[in-house]
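Worked Example 4.2. Consider the chain below.
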Amino acid sequence: MSEDKTPGDEAFDFGGGADGAGLSENDAAQYEALKAEATGLREQVLRYAAEMENTRRRAEREANDARAYAIQKFARDLLGVADNLARAMQAAPRDTEDTAVKNFVLGVELTEKELQSAFERNGLKRIHPDRGEKFDPHKHQAMMEAPGTDVAPGGVVEVMQSGYELLGRLIRPAMVAVAAKVAGAPAGGGDGGANPYAANDGGEGSGGSVDTRA
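Applying the procedure from the previous section yields the following structure tokens:
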């Protein structure tokens, strides 16, 4: 025994190299047992580390969700204010020469823009599809069909009320009128009698409005 080794070192010094070559049968068996145990411990450590990382990520995600959606009720309450401002802008006179009326209309317009900016800064995004945009059952609610329009069947003809989503989570669908299916023409990608703008969810309902609210 060399001076550099402690008395217990002989129990683990098989002298056969990393692969156990040249060991006696008994030493080789011990080597393989220790190797298997080390492998098992390593896998256990990796598994525990992965579980801890998953737990950390889940806790972080839940905390972020709690912070992000804590304002959901408050945001819903403010949607009525946004709707009223939008209606005021639609009804505002545009061709008046009265300075006081012009300034009033400008003030309402600036207030609406600032409110929408505040919404966006806090993750509340308005859903207001353009005319002709394809109906999305995950974001839109079809209130009526509009036959005989220049919009392709299933496209949005008019937005009756804007929708909103909070950080990607729908809190109110946009209420829209959609172009009716042309009589006798098959819906794109579906059966001939299918509703071209109905949600493809396994098929409850074949007509009327499509309500995507949870």
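The radius of gyration is 34 Å. The beta strands are 124-127, 140-146, 156-161, 163-166, 169-172, 174-179. Compare this with Example 4.1 before moving on.
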